[in-house]
Design a protein that fits this description.
single chain, about 270 residues, alpha/beta, Hypothetical Protein, Haloacid Dehalogenase-like Hydrolase, Chain: A, domain 2, 6-stranded mixed beta sheet, 14 strands
């Protein structure tokens, strides 16, 4: 039986952010899934406000059924919010205090905007210039925030941990040598996937996911079938039920064909 939903990570699964590249086979893959009656979903650490232009164009062209965003903190089904988990403003205030005491930059992300404390070089270097943001250090005082960013090195992590923030029920996930996400300890793509499937009455065994990174580990432990990208993390490949080729080699499209989810033939670069 084919899956009822396929969840796709964005970065390095559908899209290479430092090259602004999405394979031409991605749009036909989504169209073929729709024609097969399979719901399409994106599961990403990005907020809806930070989706790359090429991903937005994909969504406009073919439609998207489900968006699990901000590592499961903000989730939609066909445009309607299914589940949302904002960070307590009192905890945000403490993070801000610690960051200002150490002269660290921080960011606050809602579904509408990513607002950073400054636009210093460390911020530019970590975001690759591909994620839109505004400089607004007090944004969190006026809007719900689903995830924070702290722009610190690995050497600075110990000082941040010593502040006691994580003991309030939070976790940090590094995505760049200069940047980390801060979110609820139980926040993950898996949390959003469980919420969406519960709302739709779909068994988790009837789901599939594509991913490549460490923040996809919980997702692979939750869905019925995990597909790892060929250049993904070894830890994720160990959990996967199938390992496909990198995105430049049309790994998503060809895996769907190989697994019998969409009709062939396979896609090649010729």
């Amino acid at each position: 039986m084919p899956p009822k939903i396929v969840f796709f990570d964005i970065d390095d699964t559908l899209f290479r952010k430092w090259q602004d590249f999405m394979p031409e086979s991605v749009l036909p893959a989504f169209r073929a899934l729709h024609e097969a009656g399979v719901l399409t979903a994106i599961a990403t650490g990005r907020s809806p406000c930070a989706l790359p232009a090429k991903i937005r164009a994909l969504i406009d062209a073919v439609g998207l059924d489900i968006l699990v965003s901000t590592n499961g903190q903000y989730n939609r089904y066909r445009g309607e919010t299914v589940a949302a988990h904002p960070i307590d403003p009192a905890d945000i205030a403490e993070v801000v205090r610690v960051c200002r005491a150490h002269d660290w930059d921080y960011g606050c992300t809602s579904e509408e905007k990513m607002a950073l404390s400054s636009d210093r070089q460390r911020v530019h270097d970590s975001l690759y210039g591909t994620v839109p943001y505004e400089t607004d250090p007090d944004y969190w005082q006026r809007h719900p925030v689903y995830q924070m960013n702290v722009f610190i090195t690995a050497e600075e992590e110990a000082a941040f941990a010593a502040s006691g923030i994580l003991q309030r029920g939070y976790q940090m996930i590094r995505w760049h040598p200069l940047g980390m996400d801060l979110l609820h300890a139980d926040g993950s793509k898996a949390r959003g996937i469980r919420a969406v499937c519960a709302a739709l009455g779909i068994d988790l065994a009837d789901t599939m996911a594509f991913g490549d990174e460490l923040n996809d580990l919980e997702m692979f432990k939750t869905v019925g079938f995990g597909v790892a990208m060929g250049d993904g993390r070894d830890e994720l490949k160990a959990l996967a039920k199938y390992v496909t080729t990198p995105l430049e080699q049309h790994g998503v499209y060809n895996a769907l064909v190989h697994l019998g989810i969409i009709p062939g033939p396979t896609w090649n670069n010729a």
